[in-house]
């Protein structure tokens, strides 16, 4: 087996990067994790002998090319602050320039439902019009278009894999993280409502095996594909199940669009959520028939099991935080 990594995760430090890295490791494949901070990558991946750690500056195509040197496939997971979505297409173009310079043959973009705008059908297939009415949707659309247009040029093949909202153990950037934390700690969970609308969430550990499989499926490239969750569920149902695991009654503080506007006066992150609130009232539910037709059945963790694992992780984190705090107390 070639000792060099053939696949690299660009922007690997987040939850999706860790899921994909775990799947690559489980398959015995060497991989390269690429991110701005070497220390964070070392903390997450330094234990895995299959992982190669490389720091980069995605604002610099030369740095991109250096970080991607020798790779056959790159998986793009780069995030930007929620109030700086204009950076998405800019960074994507610089990354494409760097990947071409490095001679990378394949690129997988892990995308979102934002480019669709308001759903016109349920579920949504890959042929649904992409007509975003929000700034964030337009920036994600521009990013996607760069990737789609790059396919077949300069020896590069591309694939866009769109995901719905996600959740999972320790996934802090999930809308549901506060629910698991609240249940585990016996606190009130802050949620964005309405919470009785059927919604779709993908369990983040399920994403990695799909991406690993797609990375070695040549016929997947030149396409856009969906990975759907394990059906739909309401946020209230998730909260009730999580608090039941803690043997507690749910304690929920639900903020609707009006409350988000008010809270946004003091919290920039919440202010940025206002334009995306339509996804709470009119969620995009994905159809991933094209994906499963291509690669076969996909393992999807049930909501019951996913909630249990996410709650357990929050409970462990809470217990560890308490132990650290106790250790700092004077004897």
UniProtKB/TrEMBL annotation:
Entry superkingdom: Bacteria
Pfam families: Epimerase
Coiled-coil intervals, chain numbering: none
Domain NAD-dependent epimerase/dehydratase: 9-217
Gene3D superfamilies linked to this entry: NAD(P)-binding Rossmann-like Domain (3.40.50.720)
InterPro entries the UniProt entry points to: Epimerase_deHydtase, NAD(P)-bd_dom_sf
Name of the protein: Nucleoside-diphosphate-sugar epimerase
């Amino acid at each position: 087996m070639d000792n060099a990594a053939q696949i690299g995760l660009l922007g690997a430090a987040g939850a999706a990067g860790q899921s994909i890295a775990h799947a690559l490791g489980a398959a015995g494949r060497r991989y390269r994790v690429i991110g701005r901070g070497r220390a964070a990558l070392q903390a997450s991946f330094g234990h895995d002998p299959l992982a190669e750690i490389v720091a980069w500056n995605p604002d610099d195509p030369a740095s991109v090319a250096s970080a991607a040197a020798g790779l056959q496939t790159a998986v793009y997971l780069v995030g930007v602050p929620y109030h700086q979505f204009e950076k998405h297409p800019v960074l994507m173009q610089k990354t494409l320039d760097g990947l071409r310079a490095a001679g990378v043959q394949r690129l997988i973009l892990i995308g979102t439902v934002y480019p669709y705008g308001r759903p016109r059908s349920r579920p949504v297939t890959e042929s649904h019009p992409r007509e975003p009415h929000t700034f964030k949707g337009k920036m994600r659309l521009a990013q996607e278009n760069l990737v789609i247009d790059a396919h077949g040029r300069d020896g590069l093949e591309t694939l866009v894999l769109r995901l719905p909202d996600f959740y999972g153990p320790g996934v802090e950037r999930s809308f549901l993280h506060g629910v698991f934390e609240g249940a585990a700690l016996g606190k009130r969970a802050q949620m964005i409502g309405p919470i009785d609308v059927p919604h779709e969430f993908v369990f983040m550990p399920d994403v990695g095996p799909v991406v690993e499989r797609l990375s070695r499926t040549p016929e997947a490239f030149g396409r856009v594909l969906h990975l759907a969750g394990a059906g739909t569920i309401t946020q209230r149902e998730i909260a009730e199940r999580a608090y039941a695991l803690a043997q507690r009654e749910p304690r929920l503080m639900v903020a609707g669009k009006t409350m988000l506007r008010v809270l946004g006066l003091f919290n920039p992150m919440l202010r940025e959520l206002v334009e995306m609130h339509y996804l709470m009232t009119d969620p995009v539910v994905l159809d991933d028939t094209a994906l499963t037709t291509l690669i076969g059945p996909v393992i999807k963790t049930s909501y019951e099991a996913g909630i249990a694992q996410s709650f357990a992780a929050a409970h462990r984190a809470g217990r560890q935080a308490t132990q650290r705090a106790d250790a700092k107390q004077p004897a």
